[in-house]
Amino acid sequence: MSRGLVYGLKKFWSEIFSGDLLILFFSIVLAVTSISSVGFLGDRLKSSMQMQASSILGADLVLRSATEIDSKYLNLASSLDLKSAETATFLSMIITDEDNLLTSIKAVTPSYPLRGKLTVVNFDNSPIQHSGSPPQGSIWIEKKVSESLELNQSDNIIIGNKNFIVEAIIQDYPDRNSSFVGFYPVAIVNINDVDAMGVIQTGSRVVYRQLFSGTQKNLDRFVESLDTLPPNIRLQNAIDVGDNLGEDIDNSTTFFNLASLFTIIISVIAAMMAVRRYASRNLLHTSLMKVFGASKTFILGHQIMQLVLLIITASSFGLIFGYALQHLLISTLQGIINADLPPPSFRPVILGLITATFVVFATAAPYIKILSDTEPIRILRNDFTIKLSSNFIIYLVAFFSMFGFLGILFQDLKLILYIVITLVVVTFALYSMGRLLLYALSFMQFSNGTGWKLGLKNLVQRGNESILQVIIFGLSLLFLVVLAETRTDLVDSWSETLDEDTPNYFLFNIQEYNLKPISNYFEDQAQITPDFTPLIRGRLLSAKRPGSDVNFDNLMDREANLTWQNLLPVSNKLVAGKWWAEGDEVKEVSVDQEIAASMDLEIGDELTFSAGDKTFSVSVTSFREIEWQSFSPNFFFILSPAAGKELPNSYITSIKVKDSNKLMNNFVATFPTITSVNLEAIINQAKNSISSASLAVQYIFLLTLIAGVLALIASIYANKDQRTKEAAIMHAIGASRAMIFKSAASEFFILGILSATTAVIFSTLLSSVIFYQFLDLIYSPNILILGLSFLLAITFIFVAGVLSIRKSIYASPMITLRDS
Amino acid sequence: MAGLDLPTSGSVTLLGSDITKLDEDKRAQIRGKDVGFVFQSFHLMPRLTALDNVMLPLEISGDRYAMDKAQEALEQVGLSKRSKHYATQLSGGEKQRVAIARSIVNKPKILFADEPTGNLDIKSSGAITDLLFSLKELINTTLVLVTHDLSLAEKCEEVFELSEGQLL
């Protein structure tokens, strides 16, 4: 075999440049580019999300409770080589001589934060070196505090019984959303000052947190030792937070994976056709080598070396392109990712190489066997045809091992299973349609040989070859059409979440007596009628399951906004249970499905809330899915009117105002007690994210499109030699160029129509499965995309087909026949 | 006879070995070492140069001096100036010369030629016949010709006639 390997090594470049291996080469480059770009991207995004998640927590792991947490966890952590810190966060008034301000006070130990960055500066913005917490008696404040209270550096303020000196301005801190979300400005003090302030008393709302960081192994050991955590302590870890962060770009990564999978499948189709042509053209070469003394192992060595070199060179190109494409995607997605990404790992490189190996050996294995088994007598018989039927088992094994590999690669066996089923069904449909067509055509009279009739006759005569071509065209088109539809719908669904009417202002703290004047203001000034939603501050006290003594350990441990509604809000979808009928007198509640799942709630459970001085119980009658991106007021708990009408409430509304500055400035002046929040910055950020994600999706789609075009070209070129020879013979026996052209044109036209029709029909089936199962979108066939794909596919097959034999139409038949 | 195929019955002894008792790889070994072939339709590799085509049998046997020997063989058939040309750039007569150079490059003990002039015009045909016979003398080999051309057959020392599968 070693001589065969050396021979393969010597002949590799001349084989590549001769063109026979070129399509196979490009197929591998495309498959590797696709898998590695998505791999590199996913890899970096995953690390980045974990970094962001850790930074949001300020640690890798957090214990959180409304009561003081036992110090034994800190001791346990230190015995496991973990770093730790503590924080206690509560609301309190900062008092100056002239004014006061309700502020979120974060008391921290010097080691805070363990992850992320705490930046504090002097009042003149010059940086301050610090150890993580202010010294005792000093306070760091956000700019909002200094502006509201007109404070300067070194001014005195009072919190409870303790005096503080203002030392610095907080520019940035990591665990921003860890306690009282939103509207209160923040101040940081040393945790040893908490007792002296004397503001924490029984019943005070305080969030205590213990922060931990260290190696994943030690963190895992720490979590294992925590299995008996008391119910009042919640464990938060960076990976869970990372999952939530990931939802924003979840659908785009699903699309990237899908596109990458389709690119590999289409590349495999192209590779199959390329290998087939390569093998049939190499049969003469191998037979000759056998005549001149080459053994079976020599041929095997020669073929394997060629394919190994092909894998190495094509993968290298693929990996370089993949890395470059990933860079392009990252820079496109910068708006969404918004962080310095860590470098990718080596994993995508390995994946790329394995993919290339599978693409090559799954498609080439049967042919390597044919070539090494070839008999030298073929030379004397001039017989260089390839029969695949005897190697059907090898093909079957290659096919299933390929999909097994894809299943492992994409870690989604369900998706791969759907694809395999679709492939089998569509192949069968294409085969049946091809057979049916050939059967119908065989009854036609071809005696008066016009060009197009000759083409149809050729189709019938080519028999299985024509059917194979219909199958290859059809399958390549199927995946392209499905991806084109997915791409368009995904981008549309993103854009729809932020249409023209997306509200840009939230108004809250609205009292009953404000409703009429506010409505009048907006109707007069901007012809808008605001829709007010009742807002009740409540707290979930307990839950019980009638007829069972189940304990609810994971109840929501904070105040929540409740509302009552007659009708299900537009941005909500009922996923379980029933919405109440109008006039229903039963006290009911509808719960967000995710919150319900986190608290282990079931329909029929009874929840007890407190709101103001009232305590009331309601029965859970439905779960809802909330579209949070709608920018409308959304609630975890919606009460029935019977339950909520009598409770103390304010109102909230969201409105869309154009030319908002003057209108809203006047509004604030007219209604000083109403809080207004401008959402424009958030909306713009979301819009940027959507356009970035859409652009990234286009890039990835382009890669699949190139693979599709390559597969079509490979398929057309698969029997180019035969067509060229036939054209030359027809020329030689007197057929005009126009006749040969019409013959080829009608053949490709029929092939195009048949495969495009089947592909378009079956694409609707595969698309609906993918939309429903993997993207959580509702599928309705996009007639424009389907129609365009149909026409473009027929045109492409027709034009590329005719172009592929143009040389033989115009060349001298003598030269063509002599060379063939 | 050349060991490219096996008889349905009987045996064939080639250069002292009963090739019907050998497997394909063993037969290939004999062909590579001691047998040369010339075909009616030349069977040159279109994507290889004349020199590469001639080198093919030596490369298979791993001969370190393949290039020098191939160059020498091309000189012997009078085509040393066309060694860098691809097979598709050669005329019919030139292609057959390259094929002959390829068949003698391993100095075979026996040279099989299957209708070597069947695809050539009269002028080229005469030249190829002369070349084959002169090379036979030069490398001191046995030439086995299969032909329908009686004038070519007359040049051979021994003639066997086959008709409808029967040796006459």
Question: Could you describe the 3D structure shown?
Answer:
The complex is a heterodimer of chains A (820) and B (168). Chain A is of the alpha+beta class. Chain A has 26 helices and 20 strands. In chain A, a hairpin with a 2-residue loop joins β16 (606-611) and β17. The two termini of chain A are 32 Å apart. Chain B has helices spanning 24-34, 50-61, 66-76, 92-104, 122-139, 150-154, and strands at 13-14, 17-18, 35-38, 110-114, 142-146, 162-163, 166-167. In chain B, the strands form 3 sheets. In chain B, strands 3-4-5 form a 3-stranded parallel β-sheet. Chain B has a two-stranded antiparallel sheet with strand order 1-2. In chain B, α5 (122-139) links the parallel β4 (110-114) and β5. Chain B is globular and about 45 Å long. Chains A and B meet through α1, α8 and α9 of A and α1 and α2 of B.
Characterize this entry briefly:
The complex is a heterodimer of chains A (820) and B (168). Chain A has 820 residues and is of the alpha+beta class.
Q: Whole-Å distance between the termini of chain B?
A: 17 Å
Radius of gyration of chain A: 35 Å
- Specify which chain pair forms the largest interface: A-B, 27 and 29 residues
State mean pLDDT of chain B (0 to 100 scale).
86
Radius of gyration of chain B: 16 Å
The overall average pLDDT of chain A, rounded, is: 81
Name the structural class of chain A: alpha+beta
Strand order within the widest sheet of chain B? 3-4-5
The level of helicity of chain A is: 55-70%
Order of helices and strands of chain B: EEHEHHHEHEHEE
In percent, how much strand structure appears in the residues of chain B?
5-15%
How can the largest sheet of chain B be summarized? 3 strands, parallel
Q: Write down the oligomeric state.
A: heterodimer
- What is the molecular shape of chain A? elongated
Detail the poorly predicted runs of chain A. 178-182, 242-248
Q: Care to count the β-strands of chain A?
A: 20
What is the makeup of the main sheet of chain A? 10 strands, mixed
Report, as a whole number of angstroms, the end-to-end distance of chain A: 32 Å
Number of helices of chain B: 6
**What percent of residues of chain A are in strands?**
15-25%
